[in-house]
Amino acid sequence: MELSTTKVPSGEEVLSLYNSVGWSAYTDQPEVLFEGLKNSACAIYAYDDEHQLVGLVRVVSDNATICYVQDILVRPSAHRSGVGRALFSAVQAKYEHVRQLVLITDDEPGQRAFYESMGLAEGSDFRPGVIRLFAKFS
Question: N-acetyltransferase domain spans which residues (predicted)?
Fold first, then answer.
């Protein structure tokens, strides 16, 4: 596996990856997805040994106080191969100086276990007091 911030995949490769995980909210408007990737503070791409795109992570950040993991996805054929862990670890290393690392994800037990294994905690588990999250999805 190879991680890269400079080997940028084609639009077709990106759409194939997002389609593979069923994220049609992105693939229904590819121009918006491509603009989001282009304007991200950081995008890291994962390639398999055949140089095929198998995962990516993209970050929105001010590089001082917050790092928001907007997308992290791995092609289903590469699940449980360490790709997601490598991508997330790369973000943690790049933004270790930033006070807050945040993400929003689906309510799926496997995701919770993965993110907890990466050192994150769910907002409702913070003590003392609960962290609140407010969001608007359009």
Answer: 1-138
What whole-number distance in Å separates Cα of residue 95 and Cα of residue 65?
10
Q: What is the 3-state secondary structure (H, E, C) of 59-93?
A: EEECCCCEEEEEEEEECHHHCCCCHHHHHHHHHHH
CB 92: neighbour CB atoms within 10 A? 16
Cα–Cα separations (whole angstroms), residue 47 to 13, 24, 129: 11, 22, 41
Which of these ranges, 28-32, 43-47, 91-95, 121-125, has the smallest mean pLDDT? Answer: 121-125
* 121: three-class secondary structure by DSSP: coil
Cα(109)–Cα(56) distance, integer angstroms: 21
Residue 112: C-alpha distances to residues 66, 82, 100 (Å): 21, 16, 18
pLDDT at 117 > cutoff 80: yes
Sign of CA dihedral 96, 102, 105, 108: positive
